[in-house]
Amino acid sequence: MKKLIEKDLLEILLASFIIFLLSSIIHCPFIEPNYYSDIVSIWYREEIRNGGIPYFQVKFEYPQLAGLITYISVILGKDLLKYYLLMCLHLLIFTIGSVVLTYKIIKLKNYEMNRIYRYFLLTPSMLIFLIYNYDILVVFFILLAIFFYFKEKFSLVGLSIGFGIISKLVPIFLIPIFLLEIKGFRKKLSFLIPAIIIPFIANLLPAIYNYPIWFETYKHHMEWGLENSWLVFLFINPSSWNTAKLLSEFLLIYGAFKVYIWKEENIIEKCFAMLSIFLLVNYVYTPQMNLWLLPFFVFSNKDFYLFYPFELLNACIILFWFITPNPTQAFSITQYFATSRSIILFIILLNRISLFKTIIKRKRRCLFLKKNF
Amino acid sequence: MFILKEKFLKYISNFKEYLGKNFINQLNFLIPITFLILKLMIINTPDSFIFDEAHYIPAVRKMLSGEAANNEHPPLAKALMMFGIMLFGDNPFGWRIFIVILSIFSIYLIYKIAFELTNDKIVSISASYLFATDIMAFNIGSMAILDAPTLTFALLGFFLFLRKRYSLSAIAFGLSFLCKITSLFIIASILLFFFLKKFYEKRNIFETLNEWFKVFERIFFIALIISIIGLAIYDIPYKAFTTPFEHIDFMLNYHSSLTFNKTQSAEVVFPHQWITVFPPAPYYVVTVQEKVGEMIVREYHTIAYYGVYSPTWWTIWIMFPVSIYEMLYYLKKRYEKELDMPLFVFSWILLNFLPYIPMAYLLHRWVYSFYFYTVIPALCIAIPYYLIKGDKSKTSLLMLITMQSFWFFYWFPVKSKFHIDLLSMLGLSA
Questions:
Q1: What is the CA radius of gyration of chain B?
Q2: Least CB-CB distance to A235: which of B210, B213, B249?
Q3: In chain B, N or C: fewer CB atoms in 10 Å?
Q4: How many CB atoms lie within 10 A of CB A359?
């Protein structure tokens, strides 16, 4: 009889649960000292705590699924402790889901299983940023999309991307990647329709009900300044940040097109490249966003030695954030950490792209040899 | 004596033969040289500021004294004026000489570009002549303002681009940006031209983008580096901005803030007027009145720098639709031999003229008729090309050139007594 749950998966789940527990302890508002968490700070917003419905009645800067989870936790929790525990429970579901999906993709593509510990579970980002923001939601949906892509269930890929978009906006940039990789018009359509319809409906309802409040979600991001972006060293004066954002948007479009026309057929590599480019050129690269990339370090057969300083610098940003007088300003210690982190990510990205070029060349050479000899 | 005469006659006939064979080649140099002489003859007139020289020369004087000035524009064109002053003194010759030389170089570059695009010497020479005699181009290239060097560097970049010397081309584009930020429109149009050209070759959007990105990256990053270095050379010693990027931000903000309100809208010469009819803008006009007693018997302008259109500007109404029609036609017919011209005309006009329409009508940004200056090269190249294509006898081209020459003669900015008398004899006001 086949085991209900495999031993290595059980070990992985146990490790992830411990990490999750540690993360929830360090951010728990009832334990002193505790580390700042966006999730806890949201509770202290009076309009949210009083049960205001995000996007309909109160401004909420995160997309709709994040708002829904928060609203449910507030309504059912009623006080901070229960709210916090409910939020943890929600995030735990997505954490476990992400871990299981990573495990399944490893099995499917024959990657080394140990990498899940080194590059995903036992990393500073997991410890610090699991109970911090809604990033694990988007990690889960991106992994789900990739998993369904490998299983060739394209409408489910679209569904996952659609839900990903209403968790964090970034999967929008993955739509063209999947669209170009999926062959056949009908399959493309079965992917595209749910990927567009879910965010459309999720936005349409609050937009019709209360347009100004709904629009605040997006306005908030448009008006946000530079945060942990290397651009701050070029645009030192905050009054010049609008141009910095323009440059950021230009670079993002350029980078996205580069990925879309990349003659690489590996969806994992393309998604990694797109997310990395987004983080590298976007005017906001908050440290919790590093979670998005972690599973992609698992899905490789190469060791990334720069991964450790990359992660360490990322953790340092938040560890030094609250003891730095002006942490968003150029030449502050946090911005040095952030820019160093971006430089390392850029090197990793270049390294990984060239690595894949070499693999493709090798494969082609092998094919050529097989054909001719 | 007889031998000498024979030798002389042989020499003459050889020279005639040489000229016959190479006349067009000589014109290629003769036109710019003639117009250089023409411009040098009037360079000192007037000895006070024409049009926007009133902004730039005082700014250059400040820069010479070590003070940052006129930061809303990049510094290269002003640096050229500064060198002129340093070499020849703070006088009209010093202010204008480098701008004049660069504007003359534009005439030569238009010949080269037209030849690259059409491989036809008659078209190229005609294009060069039409540009030289365009009164707006002539006036803009005779005064110490930023537009002439901007266009020259952009045309140089385009010529090098057509020759596939992409890195050098990017350097020229960087220099053009360092003269005036409107060069971005020209650079964008050239990149669009290349994109369309590649698309017609490949007929596949991904292959096109792949090819296009390779060139785009070289152009963009090299031009950016040149621009940043150029701005830093100005910003650091003059302590104008902390970083060159902040300077770019300042320029963009400044220019987007130049808007007009409802009451001012009557003063604006809108883009649709540029290609129809608009009242000539007096940049510098000296009126002379001849009196008999108290009665004015004759009034004329010895100096009349006007911002005025040439009749060739109206051809945009034909050239732009024709270029679109040809593009669509070739798309269907898969005929790529004569594709460069419609693609060039379409891209150039689309991105150098059309952006001013939403800028003026929607954003209420101040626009001026001399902004059409950057569109002129496309028309000057397209007109002879299409005229010769449709009429092998070249009669229509000759007629147009004659008309343009006469228009130029009429609006020539500094008039001699003979010039004025001649115009009066023809019953025209001078």
A1: 23
A2: B249
A3: N
A4: 15
Contact between A95 and A125 under an 8 Å Cβ cutoff? The reply is no
- Is A261's CB within 8 Å of B242's CB? no
* Residue numbers in A near B219 (CB within 8 A): none
Residues of B in contact with A331 (CB under 8 A): none
Tokens of B367: 């626009």
Query: Chain B closest CA to A247's CA: distance in Å?
Result: 10
Q: Which of residues 194-213 of B touch A (CB under 8 A)?
A: 206, 209-210, 213
Q: What is residue A3's predicted lDDT score, i.e. its pLDDT?
A: 64
Q: Tell me if chain A has a CB within 8 Å of the CB of B252.
A: yes
Torsion, CA B109, CA B115, CA B118, CA B124, rounded to 10? 80
Q: Residues near B374 by Cβ (< 8 Å), separated by ≥ 6?
A: B147, B150, B151, B154, B182, B185, B186, B352
Predicted local confidence at residue A190, as pLDDT: 96
Q: Look at residue B428 in the predicted model and tell me its pLDDT.
A: 84
| d(C-alpha B300, C-alpha A238), whole Å | 55
Residues 42-71 of B with CB under 8 A from A: none
Cis preceding linkage at B46, omega within 30: yes
| Model pTM score | 0.87
What would the two tokens of residue A202 be?
Answer: 């999720």
Q: Name every residue whose Cβ is closer than 8 Å to that of residue A117 and which is 6 or more positions away in sequence.
A: A12, A15
How far is Cα A198 from Cα A171, in angstroms, rounded to an integer? 13
- Calculate what percentage of chain A has a pLDDT beyond 70: 95
Residues in chain B: 430
Mean of the per-residue pLDDT values of chain A: 92
pLDDT at B406: 95
Best residue in A229, A243, A277 to probe B by mutation, most B CBs within 10 Å? A243
The pLDDT tens digits of the residues spanning B294-313 come to 888 888 899 999 999 999 99
Size of interface A-B (CB pairs under 8 A): 36
Closest chain A residue to B244, measured at CA = A234
Nearest CA to B191 out of B161, B224, B171, B168 is that of B161
Tell me which chain B residue has its CA closest to the CA of residue A250. Answer: B220
| Residue in A235, A239, A258 nearest the CB of B245 | A235
Which tokens go with A140?
């889960």
Minimal CA separation from B117 to chain A, in Å: 29
Contact (CB<8Å) B243/A261 = no
First to last CA, chain B: 53
Predicted pLDDT of residue A371: 67
In one-letter notation, the amino acid at residue B288 is V
Facing A261 at nearest CB: one of B210, B248, B249: B210
Split at pLDDT 50, 70, 90, the class of B336 is low
User: What count of Cα atoms within 13 Å lies in the side-chain half-sphere of residue A161?
Assistant: 29
* Alpha-carbon gap: B185 to the closest alpha carbon of chain A (Å): 16
Query: Of the candidates A173, A176, A148, which has an alpha carbon nearest to the alpha carbon of residue A160?
Result: A148
Contact A240 B249 (CB under 8 A): yes
With a pLDDT cut of 90, the percent of chain A lying above it is 83
Q: Which of A29, A243, A139 is nearest to B249 (CA)?
A: A243
Does A301 have pLDDT greater than 90? no
Distance CA A142, CA A276 (A): 14
Write the DSSP symbol of residue B298.
E
